[in-house]
Amino acid sequence: MKNKFFIITLLSLMTLVVVAEVISHYISPLGESLLMVIRWAAIAALIVYAFRKKSLTTWILVSMIVGAEVGHDFQEVAVKLRVLSQIFLKMIKTIIAPLIFGTLVVGIAGHSGLKQVGRMGLKSIIYFEIVTTIALFIGLAAINISKAGVGIELPTEQHEELPKVVPQTFNDVILHIFPENIAKSVAEGQVLQIVVFSIIFGIALAMLSQARRQPMLNFAEGLSDVMFKFTNVIMYFAPVGVGAAMAYTVGHMGLGILVNLFHLLATLYVALIVFLLCVLLPVALIVRVPLKKFISAIIEPVSIAFATTSSEAALPRAMEAMEKIGVPRKIVAFVMPTGYSFNLDGTTLYLALATIFVAQAAGMDLSFGTQLMIVFTLMLTSKGVAGVPRASLVILLGTASSFGLPIVPIFIILGIDELMDMARTSVNVIGNCLATVVVARWEGEFVDDYSPVDSQEEKMNT
Question: What is the fold of 80-442?
Answer without folding.
Answer: Proton glutamate symport protein (1.10.3860)
